[in-house]
Amino acid sequence: MTEKNDREWQYTVTAHDAVDERHHGSINIPIYQTSLFAFETYDKFQEATKQSQTHHVYSRGNNPTVRYLEDKLAELEHAEMAKCFASGMAAISAAILSSVKAGDHIVCVDQAYGPTRTFVTQYLKRFDIESTLVDGSQMDNIRSALRPETKLIYLESPTSMLFQLQDLKACAELARSRGIVTIADNSWATPVFQRPLELGINLVVHSVTKYISGQSDSVAGVVLGSERLISRIADEEYMLFGGIMTAHTAALVTRCLRTLPLRMERHERSALKVATHMAGHPYVVRVNYPALPSHPQYELGLKQMNGSSGLFSFESAESPEKMREWAGKLKLFKIGVSWGGFESLVIVNPAFAACAAEAHSLIRLHIGLESVDDLIRDLDQAWAQVSDLQM
Ligand SMILES: *Cc1c(COP(=O)(O)O)cnc(C)c1O
User: Hey, which residues does 287 pair with through a beta bridge?
Assistant: First the structure.
């Protein structure tokens, strides 16, 4: 067998399962389309209800199809345990709520996913939970934002608009020395390229909607970590809020997982090629992609990741109006939110606050699984159509 950190090991984990006689040797996990599980005797029923995380009683708590996916994801992320949720936000809000109580304070990266920031800085205020947003690319910013009542440091590395990194190991060490929990959103890198738990982070969250699903057909999430932390989330936030993943979604995502390492390697190769191409264009001021040596945190990226996915942004001195016109001329890139699927996407974010001084627009590209040469030709033909426009 290959080593546990080897990319080849990931191929075996995602492609191989032991024959399970409970499922007649079915090589795909069956879809357990059931709300409850019944028992022949009252004793067996009582025994199961006492251990509802390992036994099957009710699908809001535990379903075999969902459990199968949870175990696979935990193995890939090197976690003791995983819990799958109805969406990335269901997973993120559950992980955060499991870490804080009234009177606590949260330090969160200022470029974290928008709804995560809204949840932390606005929604939690009504429960008397305060927060500070920081530029997480500098450890000093995180350190100086800590208060005696800080109970959580929320990270997302890289962030998904400007692709800023946080030093995950240093954050985890700082937090541990003060009894603070750390959560990292690992949706961009996936366990194929980054495993924050190995760097000391307590909880990893994913929008499974993105790369882990990869087919743009499911909305899903997961929280991973130690058995102690995850079983508490399973008993509390999972059971009490009920934002569960259905057996159908779990079966779809399990199917997608088979090709995760394969897809990630393709996204990486193509994105690096497109990002390098874009960096040479006169209308591009800066490309934000951790795999380019021009990225200010390139070295940190090499240290804590072993690859880069297919999402990056570039900043342009052209107006957002002109770049939207350009986006409209693209034939292979579709205009849309989200990312991580087979399809290439573009979105123009006007006058984004953190653009370089000379830039006026921020354009985010998701590089899908199409021919990379076709994608580059598409970007260039669209520019040829709008380059002379005065707008
Ligand atoms: C999309 C996204 C989320 C939220 O996931 P959903 O599945 O849409 O709820 C969280 N974090 C990041 C980085 C995302 O891109």
Answer: 314
Please say if the pLDDT value at position 1 is more than 90. Answer: no
Task: State what percent of residues in the chain have pLDDT above 70.
Answer: 96
Helix (H, G, I), strand (E, B) or coil at 9: helix
Return the pLDDT at 313: 96
Residue 5: the pLDDT is: 65
310/367 Cα distance (integer angstroms):
5
State how beta strands 130-134 and 203-207 pair.
unpaired
pLDDT of residue 39: 96
For the entire predicted model, the pTM comes to 0.96
Name the residue of 165, 210, 241, 339 whose CB sits within 8 Å of the most ligand 1 atoms, as the mutation to test its pocket.
210
Q: List every span in the chain annotated with CATH 3.40.640.10.
A: 3-257
Residue ranges of the chain assigned to CATH 3.90.1150.10: 260-390
User: 95 CA distance to ligand 1 centroid (A)?
Assistant: 14
pLDDT tens for 205-258 read 999 999 999 999 999 999 999 999 999 999 999 999 999 999 999 999 999 999
What class does CATH assign to 260-390?
Answer: alpha beta
Buried b (16+ CB within 10 A) or exposed e, 269-288: ebbbebbebbeeeebbbbbb
Whether the pLDDT of residue 148 is over 90: the answer is yes
Ligand 1 atom nearest to 187, measured from its CA: 13
Closest CA to 293 of 280, 281, 305, 302: 302
CA 163 – ligand 1 centroid, Å: 15
Residue from 108, 155, 160 to probe ligand 1 pocket by mutation (most atoms less than 8 Å from CB): 160
Whether the predicted pLDDT of 356 surpasses 70: no
Around ligand 1, the residues with Cβ closer than 6 Å are: 87-89, 113, 156, 160, 185, 187, 207, 209-210, 219, 221
User: pLDDT at position 350, please?
Assistant: 58
Q: Which CATH number fits domain 3-257: 3.55.30.10, 3.40.50.11690, 3.40.640.10, 3.40.220.10?
A: 3.40.640.10
With residues binned 3-state (H G I as helix, E B as strand, rest as coil), the percentages for the chain, rounded to 5, are 40, 15, 40
